[in-house]
Protein 1
Amino acid sequence: MNASPKGVRSELRGIGAVHDLGDFRNTFARNQTDGVAITSAHQEFGSAIHPVMKTHPVSGRRFLFVNEGFTQHLIGLKATGSNKPLDYLYHQISQLENQVRFQWTTHAMAIWDNRCTNHYATADYLPQQRIMHRITVVNDARVNDR
């Protein structure tokens, strides 16, 4: 978040955003068109509100907690007012200077902290096989996100 103008950072401090599965719920529908599976998935997974800026529990550094797939809108703003800052943040995330590109080699291993990383897997390792194991930390003594 250091690359963002200070004005943008101060505006985002304390702002929450709605995170929702959105059209990913269609995965649960399995070609059902009556909406029952979508309704069930919404009831089970619902929506959540998270701060746009969080504090990493270990490093203490601030990070953005938004992504195009799940962040629906900023709390307290109508869609038109919410889209502009979110589009700006998504644009920042997509800039090469804010990304890491990992080059796969034999026996290479990559580890990232999903709490503060947007990742996009490319098929640059083909025809080799990529094996992935996901580990999720359940309790990590998070700090206050104010």
Protein 2
Amino acid sequence: MKLTPGKLSGLKAVSNQHGVIAAAAMDQRGSLKKSLAKERGGDVSGHDMEEFKSLVTEVLTKHASAILLDPEWGLPAAKRRQNNAGLLLAYEKTGYDANTPGRLPDLLDHWSVQRLKEAGADCIKILLYYTMTDPKDVNDRKHAWVERIGDECRANDIPFFLECVGYEEGADEKGAEFAKKKPQIVIDYMREFSKDKYGVDVLKVEVPINMKFVEGSGVYAGTTAYTKKEAANHFKEAAQATNKPFIYLSAGVSNAEFTETLRFVGETGVKYNGVLCGRATWADGVKVFAKQGADAFRKWLETEGTKNIAAVNDALKSASSWYEIYGVHEAVGAR
């Protein structure tokens, strides 16, 4: 597979010198606002959101190849990037309509791929909740939605990152029973959205297992959904489902759990291409910002937050370059 000049340039802009995407994620909106309001015990303003995102960006991009932001509260933060870090911008609205079956996605009303690119985006990201077991009509609408965004990214010659999150309506998605179903859910969406018609350049995916249910893991919760051998096989099967570069999201787990997961992936030999890691690096600082203010949060980021992203970067030593996948033979223009 070959990339057009704009897509190649965009992917290099968000990668490190080894062709690995070592990116931070700070595009949380609804969930972040709720977390801050809960800790503060009061309202959270747009200025608070911008300040939180700006501090995370300024401190953590010293240690990241790129950052993912949203155009609603993240554009001031984009100007605070350090070390020429790349910029991914989210295109979808936060959350979904819980009253409509299928967790259908929607795009931001006042943005387009062209506008996001003009705002400085090196790459475009959208989030899609997806499971193959949804009704055919629901998934057909989602397929068409992704196809349209893929075409829009092609027209603007900018890389398209598709973030997929699996689910099951009514299930405890953090429980053992869902954990047993998760590998197939991840395999299914990785296979589906690797099809050329969608125009996806990089898949941002969940790890196909829940480490809390891996017997013998450091975060084992006491109930077994898979042995370590079975978990390793699930990682391998998911990787075999795609011919695209793919990166892992942290999905709100702790830094310790995410770094253990990355080390485990490294032991399997699976060739993943990096991470877009959000809450595993900065989530514990939400309470600090809400209760003690911006200065205390900056100090927290410079100490604990930096330790967190350093731990992720250390675990990322097992990641592989995406250059080979797209026939890139040198890192000219990469960070």
Protein 3
Amino acid sequence: MFRPLELFVGLRYTHSKRRTHFISFISMTSMLGIALGVTALITVLSVMNGFEKELRDRILGMAAHATVTTYSGKLADWQSLSQTLQEQPRIVAMAPYVRGESMLSHGKRVSGALIRGIAPELEGGVSDVVTHISGGEIAQLREGDYNIILGSELAIALGVGVGDSVTVVAPQITIGPTGILPRLRRFTVVGLFEVGMYEFDRGVALVHIRDAARLFRLDDAVTGLRLKLDDIFAAPQFARNLSMELLGDYRVEDWSHQHANFFRAVKTEKRVMFIILTLIVAVAAFNIVSTLIMVVTDKRADIAILRTLGASPGSIMTIFIIQGVVIGVLGTALGVAGGLGLALNVENIVPAIEQLFNVEFLAADVYYISEVPSELHWDDVWLMASVSLGLSLLATLYPAWRAARTQPAEALRYE
């Protein structure tokens, strides 16, 4: 039965006497090691969560939460389908689109690009690209004007700006009197967009949906419908449910499926980083083993006296478990406090360090994300604290077991 005696003696042993300063020093280093490890875990994972959120937001600035297409790539009855989808409570906005691969040329410069035909009046509901356009506006994409808005990197590659013309070459061909000719059309650049993802800024161009349909010979059909949901994290389950509800040659994809490799890589990186930083906590936690072994050796006479006074092996074991757990709890508490302080203020701390040492960690002219973001997840904090406490408890078991096996007569023989 657990008694206050074990708690009193265990806490008493955590205090240093003059002849046990070295043991207390090792205890302090173990505690600080655990605190630093937990602080590093919370801070690093929060920063990785921040980068993941930043990249996800930038991807969703161009990609929809979910899309409905057909396996043939041609959706003819999109008006009736959109009316059917309006009954879905999670859908807050939808817009048709046309998608096709093409070649863009200007002078001697040629670049491949993805042409996306959009409905300007509806596009703002499903993406944020309308807020990232410079030199023009989305309303300038009017049917029949054959205007185009290019990604900023794509415009640099072609050497064009607002007001210039580019030739769009579609993969379809036209058979005429002179033979087989590629389908091409001249478009006028009316704006540039920059969403902060090289994949989109370098390889996407926006045109009016009807101009794109004529270019790719879709007549009144579109490629599919883009959907925006009330919760982006509900998209995978929503896509699965909708694919089972829709009858016919429909294909439903969500944003996590469309960028599965990217987000899988981010999760793998977070998992590996968690394991690596947990090893730091493990090293510090298992310093508790050496601390308690030294305490057990130093307190052999005290243990023997307690045994002769009636203390059971279980009581002796509990005393040293308490001592090790106190080190683990204090170290974990300090680490959680330090980690929360850094994770919640890293966006202010990093600029201060840059200004103090006159350095720039993420140059704006090199990286799309020039600030260090942070997003604290409380489930990560609880997991790290639990792992730290678990390792600390595990580290106490062997020294406590050694203390419980101390024989009073053997320990007091030379006292």
